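Re: [ENG-882] Designed sequences occasionally contain unexpected residues at chain ends

Forwarding the minimal case from QA. Structure tokens:
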């Protein structure tokens, strides 16, 4: 299975220009994990403002048995991602984990290798946000 990083693709090729829904399957960013995060057509491209526009902490894996391969290239940690994928229903995920609540948000992690954060969910609503540059893409 060939996966492409955010930096290997053109942004306009990632989403449908009419619906803004993702055109490709989203996978964990850790090389060798191959865990599917979401199917194509379930996540909407959004830009965040206000309290949602936060800088994600650096990625790491809590799973000692996770593949030792490196994480694929993405924007430097602690920089805001170029955009997020929004999923309004947690049941739309194929494979995602949640951290403990920290400052009114839950960080999203890969359920298999526990790499994260890949994104976040505010505790006051159910919408989840995945950083576009913290996942890889399986092209159709």
């Amino acid at each position: 299975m060939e996966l492409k990083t955010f930096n290997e693709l053109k942004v306009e090729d990632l989403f449908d220009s009419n619906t803004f829904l993702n055109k490709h399957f989203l996978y964990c960013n850790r090389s060798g994990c191959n865990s599917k995060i979401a199917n194509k057509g379930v996540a909407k491209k959004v830009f965040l403002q206000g309290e949602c526009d936060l800088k994600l902490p650096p990625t790491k894996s809590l799973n000692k048995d996770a593949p030792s391969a490196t994480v694929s290239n993405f924007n430097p940690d602690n920089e805001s991602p170029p955009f997020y994928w929004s999923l309004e229903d947690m049941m739309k995920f194929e494979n995602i984990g949640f951290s403990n609540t920290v400052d009114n948000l839950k960080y999203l992690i890969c359920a298999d290798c526990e790499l994260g954060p890949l994104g976040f969910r505010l505790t006051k609503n159910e919408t989840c946000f995945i950083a576009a540059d913290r996942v890889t893409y399986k092209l159709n």
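QA comment: On inspection the terminal residues look reasonable. The chain has one domain: 3-138. Proposing we downgrade this to a documentation issue.
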